[in-house]
Amino acid sequence: MYRTVHINPALPNQPRSSVLVIYTGGTLGMVYDRHNDQLIPFDFEQILDRVPEIRRLDFELTVITLNHLIDSSDMHPTIWIDLGRIILKNYQDYDSFVILHGTDTMAYTASALSYLLEGLNKPVILTGAQLPIGVARTDARENFITALEIAAAQQDGKPLVPEVCIYFNSLLLRGNRAKKKESVHFNAFQSENYPHLAMAGVRIEYNTPFIAPYHPEATLRLHEKMDTNVVVLPLFPGISESVMDSVLHIPGLRGVVLETFGAGNAPTSPWFLDSLKRALDAGLVLFNVSQCDGGRVTQGRYQTSKLLERIGVVSGADITMEAAITKMMFVLAQESDGQVIRKRLGEPICGEMG
Ligand code: ASP
Which residues line ligand 1 (CB under 6 A)? Predict the structure, then answer.
């Protein structure tokens, strides 16, 4: 059982919409504990004292606090599945969902949920903050309130943003296109390869052509498995044969996100390609993702990437590393046939690559 708080600021009027907030931990929910001189998670029972602006909203909120609040560095695929189960269980009872999450791994969680929640037709908005809610200059209040507004936004009874997104510092981004790029300033997230879905200024301007369309007939289906027998292997000049071989021989390993240079390029030394070939022959799946945040992998543009294409490495096109590693966990958990896995990795599942 989770601790739950219900708030209906719309009373005595009928609420315009209902939002389920799931609090997982992270900086946003921290307050200063004077007695012990440390930051501790705050109790959502006091949300109206901390964020009095909530009293002015015209929709109702329910806040679920997870039993173990975590710094998102402790995030794990089992928690993604728990989040999916909470959403599935409450799907008919709420119009939308807001997940309060630490910024460090928010892009991984958003990507994973985008794959796990097949047929999603309601907003799932992740947000967090760079400064705790208990600090005077916190960005938590604006991020939280606007994420709620976006989650509740509807037109003709339909949600404006029926997909998994990250809202942060005035920008709404597609969750599986976002990346944490900043640990000090408030603009923590970027989406280099996909336009923002909304920008919050005096008004919230929606970038409708880029938002996933609403499908009235879609039914939510939760996938409850992720395969963690995967690794990210970033290349660097000087990478040695023994490093390559050690990584590619990890017992039980099924998939590798190969972080390559530029447009998907890698060394051309015979030992390097032989090492990859041996891995492919042993049944591993290799997914080529660029170390650059912007642009795309174009296998075959340079000789260095043509060789990767020839031996059977799958191009990640313009996917982020966060979306790629979670996609690999997802696809490997669904499929066992190598050809099917490679095909599914190379095609978009829910707008994570183009
Ligand atoms: N380390 C924190 C976390 O990701 C940072 C944050 O919340 O922004 O949980």
Answer: 26-27, 71-73, 102-104, 128
CB 60 within 8 A of CB 10: yes
Looking at 3.40.50.40, 3.30.70.3270, 3.40.50.880, 2.60.40.3250, the CATH number of the domain 230-345 comes to: 3.40.50.40
Interval 58-105: pLDDT, tens: 999 999 999 999 999 999 999 999 999 999 999 999 999 999 999 999
Q: Whose CA is nearest to atom 3 of ligand 1?
A: 102
pLDDT above 90 for 45: no
Is CATH 3.40.50.1170 correct for 3-222? yes
260 is known as an active-site residue: no
Q: Where are the domains of the chain?
A: 3-222, 230-345
175 Cβ contact partners less than 8 Å away, ≥ 6 residues apart = 107, 110, 111, 113, 114, 124, 126, 163, 164, 165, 166
The size of the chain, in residues, is 354
Q: Determine the distance separating the centroid of ligand 1 and the alpha carbon of 329, expressed in angstroms.
A: 23
Nearest CA residue ID for atom 8, ligand 1: 103
